[in-house]
UniProtKB/TrEMBL annotation:
Residues 1-145 form the NADPH-dependent FMN reductase-like domain. The keyword Transmembrane does not apply. This is FMN reductase/FAD reductase [NAD(P)H]. GO terms for molecular function: oxidoreductase activity. Keywords: Flavoprotein, FMN, Oxidoreductase. The keyword Oxidoreductase applies. InterPro entries: Flavoprotein-like_sf (IPR029039), FMN_Rdtase-like_dom (IPR005025), NAD(P)H-dep_FMN_reductase (IPR051814).
Length: 186
């Protein structure tokens, strides 16, 4: 099984820090699971223009292929202007919906106000519903106060939520894999 962590921004580093922490927890507690980090700032991704995803080339095709080949996901985004990043939305637009169907997603968001956690409930979860993905019931929202000046996670309660989310997504993915015939349809 392959878990893909997505840092859904082209600026800043806080979402990547939290996504990587979840990946590290999964790797530590479940070494049989392959983990990979996709940092959108490392790629030159084209804007979605509505064409078939298979017709993109270069970095865009590589990113589409990486996302499509994963079995489950941890997706992180900073919250800008009360919304997910355009880079993450563009990624969702580029990937064919069937590539994400029946796959587990866990969400992480970072932001400067404590109310921005609502973006997970009001934007990310509805997007995953469109994809017919399975969403972990827990999530991690990290406020700027949860980080040290060196961008390290220092809040113990947040680190507990990171661990809980890592276990939730693994449990869900393993359970779904064991019961694949129950939810698969053509």
């Amino acid at each position: 099984m392959k878990l893909l962590g997505i840092s859904g921004t082209v600026v800043g580093s806080k979402p990547k820090v939290v996504v990587q922490k979840v990946l590290d927890q999964v790797k530590q507690n479940h070494p049989e699971i392959e983990v990979e980090l996709l940092d959108l700032k490392d790629y030159n991704i084209q804007f979605c223009d509505g064409r078939d995803p298979s017709t993109y080339t270069g970095d865009t095709k590589e990113v589409i292929d990486i996302v499509s080949s994963a079995d489950f996901y941890i997706i992180g985004t900073p919250i800008f202007q009360g919304s997910i990043t355009g880079a993450l939305k563009n990624l969702f637009d580029l990937v064919h919906p069937k590539s994400l169907r029946n796959k587990v997603m866990g969400f992480i968001a970072t932001g400067g106000t404590y109310q921005h956690y609502l973006v997970i409930e009001n934007q990310l979860k509805p997007i995953s519903s469109y994809f017919r993905a399975f969403v972990a019931p827990g999530f991690v929202y990290a406020h700027n106060d949860h980080f040290s000046p060196q961008n390290e996670l220092v809040d113990m309660e947040l680190l507990e939520r990171v661990n809980s989310l890592s276990e939730e997504i693994v449990f869900m993915q393993k359970t779904l894999k064991e019961n694949k015939s129950y939810y698969e349809y053509s």
